[in-house]
Amino acid sequence: MVLNFLSKLSYGETAKNSEMERSGVVQTLARVYEKARNAMEYRADHLVRRAAIERIIKRLTVFDRDPKVVTKLLMDELKWARYLAAAELENMPLVRLETILAKYLRALGESNIPRDWILGVASAEIEEGLNLNVDYHIFTAFAFQVLRKKVQITSEQNIDLVIFMAVDKVYSQSDEAQTSYHILQLVQKQFETDFNKALQETFIQIKSLRESPVMGRLTNFVRRQAVPLVLLRDMYFSNPVEFKSAFTNKEDFLLSAKKVLRDQLGKMSRRMQTAAFRSIIYVFLTKMLFGVLFEAPVDILLTGHIGYIPLIINLAFPPLTMWAMTLNISLPNARDREALIQRTWLIMSNFESLAQEPDVLGDNSAARQGWWYVIFSVLYAGVFAIIFGLIFLLLTKLHFSVASQIIFVFFLTIVAFFAYRIRQTARIYSFKSGGDKVHSSLWDMFLLPILAVGNIFSQGLSKLNFLTFAFDFILEAPFKLILQFLDNWVQFLSIKKEEVIG
Predict the structure, then answer these.
(1) Residue 296 domain-assigned?
(2) pTM score of the predicted model
(3) How many domains, in total, are found in the chain?
(4) CA 191, chain centre distance (Å)
(5) Four-CA torsion 313, 316, 319, 320, nearest 10 degrees
(6) CA-CA distance, 486 to 480, in Å (whole number)?
(7) 76 in a structural domain
(8) 318 lies in which domain range?
(9) Where are the alpha helices (DSSP H) in 334-441?
(10) Model confidence over 313-370: pLDDT tens digits?
């Protein structure tokens, strides 16, 4: 299996010139807009372009569903915003992009699947068509094979798909649209030419997989087990040409892994600062909007005046809390780093022994259906009620109105959830030498209910965020028309200049 995996890699041969086109007035304006727009949503860097493609397609298809028109405008906007390198443009001819868009635009009128989901999957296929990094998916396939050997769950009929989805989500860090597209690629093999049926089946499968009773356990298991595979992938992309030769000697491999891990931890520290900053901006702007449009008017309606102290606390608390919670994110210590490096070598040198290790994941349905599980569920519900009861009691003592209390709890849970996601990202290299057991603390008991509510609110907020609506349809549509005019004007001047000089 390892030899087969190594034979599929390109070792840098597919790497091409990634230079962007020269920046002009149109490109500068478009890039500034994209920076501002991306600050409205929390997304990892590798998901920004796919999200931009989805956003542009959604806006364009409101006015026109002609694949040729949408294709041209999409490519223009991606070039303006400097999302495309010259080599990527060569990798995705307009004819191919038009074909991709055509099948999804047809599906909009021929199926009852939600429009946003279809266009999200379309954006994922376009993004992968543009992406020159074909080796990344080879590592994902290898990670699936490694983790499949360590999972022995028989209670789930579609266990392979559940594992694949968990690996794609955790190890590849794919978002929902990308995961849906990857499942679609698997499903299409059954339906061949009937794309609409494949799309419908994928939509059903995604919903079923998300509701699988073992999905949560598998996701956590993959998160803990995939750390050495992340390091292995980083070793490759840091130096693809010399990657294969590193396996000829254990000492060379360990030295290379140690250097790459040190470099990646340095990058991770800077990445966490960026993620925290983006989240603070996102929460602050959304909170300001709620304060102006909801909290202050409701206070006046219910009490006849604005409660300035609760309002100030509500405005300042979310960004300050986010800053405090992401200030001290710890990275792995020397012992854990050494254990991670040794584990990475073991996976590559002794792949077949993984299934015999004691930390395989098996069925525990009996434990989940027993009396202890029922008792602990009741206790958890009690803790849930006590925590939020104490929060509302404290806010009442501080003279928060009902509206202010709701807003405070809303943003408390959102901030906690965002900070937790940032911390989870920082834990991508956290590997404990003591085994694969899950450790919890008393703090987890209090934090878990807040995170659960924050997860629900964050999903709803992403759909109802008025700021994103204002940017996408009220501001972005006319702004892109102005850019189109400027781009045509620049081209006209260029032609005239050639005529004069000629």
Answers:
(1) yes
(2) 0.78
(3) 1
(4) 29
(5) -80
(6) 10
(7) no
(8) 232-464
(9) 334-349, 365-369, 371-397, 402-426
(10) 777 777 777 777 777 677 788 888 899 999 999 888 888 888 788 877 877 654 455 6
